[in-house]
Amino acid sequence: MQKVSQFSWIADLVKKSPLINPSLLAADFANLATEIRAVEEAGAEILHLDIMDGHFVPNLSIGVPVVEAVRRVTELPLDVHLMLSEPQKYLRAFRKAGADLITIHIEALNDPRPALEEIHQLGAAAGMAYNPPTSVETLAPFLSDADLILTMGVMPGFGGQKFDQTVLEKIAFFKKHAPSNTLLSVDGGISAQTISDCAKAGANLFVAGTAIFGASKNYAEQMRLLEEKAKREL
Ligand code: DX5
Ligand code: ZN
C-alpha cells in the first residue's frame, strides 16, 4: 500500500534512513542550546522532544515555551512526542511553537483520525504512537493516516529504561502492513545492544536519549555507533 506523504522532508528522511533521532529528555536542560548544537554537529537530522502531562504518563517534562526556545536555536525538524491524555487540545499550540512532526498516542484517543487530520491541516507531519502492551490491531485501521508510526520500547514517562523485546514483532507487523514510505520509529531503550534487532524488524528511525546524552560527551561517536549498527541490518 503506497501512501504518498504530503511532506517531502519526510520522504527525504525515509530515503536517508536509518537515522538516529536524539531525545532531548536526556540532555542537560541547563545547557540546552549547547546540547542541541552538539548533536547537530554530530550529524543529527531531526530532534525528539518529549511532552509529558503527569496524567497520561507519571511524569512532567516540558511544554510549549521550551519547544519555542528550541525552535529559536535550531533549523532541524522538531519531532514532538505528545504523552498527553488530551492531545487534541494542544495540537495548534505545539504547531505554533515550531513542531514539524506531532505524534499522539493511540491509547489517549478512541479514533486517532481527527487528531491526525488536524495535525496535517496545521501543516505538520503526523505520528501515531503506541505503548508496548497495545495490540497492532488497534493501529491497523489507521496506517495510511500517519506519516510516522512510533513504537515505544518502554512504557513512556522516563528515559533510561530497559527495552521491551516484545515490541520487535510489532515493528515487523508495521513494516509489512504500513505504506512503504512511512517512518517506522522506535523510542525508549534504544542502545548499541538493542538497535540491531529493531532495525532487523524494520524500524528506520531510532529515538535515543540515554544512549547519546548519558553515555559520553562524544555525541558524534555515540550516534555513529548506533547508526552503523542499524545500517548493518539493511
Ligand atoms: C520516554 C520518551 C523517550 C525517552 C528516550 O517516555 O518518550 O523519548 O526520552 O529514552 P531513552 O533514554 O531510553 O533513549
Ligand atoms: Zn519520546
Tag the structure with descriptive keywords:
234 residues, alpha/beta, TIM Barrel, eight-stranded parallel β-sheet, globular, binds D-xylitol-5-phosphate, binds zinc ion
As a whole number of angstroms, the C-alpha radius of gyration is 16 Å
CATH class: Alpha Beta
Number of helices: 10
The SS-based structural class is alpha/beta
Overall geometry comes to: globular
**CATH topology annotation:** TIM Barrel
Count of β-strands = 8
**Bound molecule types:** D-xylitol-5-phosphate, zinc ion
Give the fraction of residues assigned to helices.
Answer: 25-40%
Mean pLDDT reading: 96
Largest sheet: 8 strands, parallel
Strand/helix succession: HEHEHEHEHEHEHEHEHH
Spatial ordering of strands, largest sheet? 1-8-7-6-5-4-3-2
Can you tell me the number of structural domains?
A: 1
Kindly report the name of the CATH homologous superfamily.
Aldolase class I
Low-confidence regions: none
Overall CATH architecture: Alpha-Beta Barrel
Q: Strand-residue fraction?
A: 15-25%
The span between the termini is 21 Å
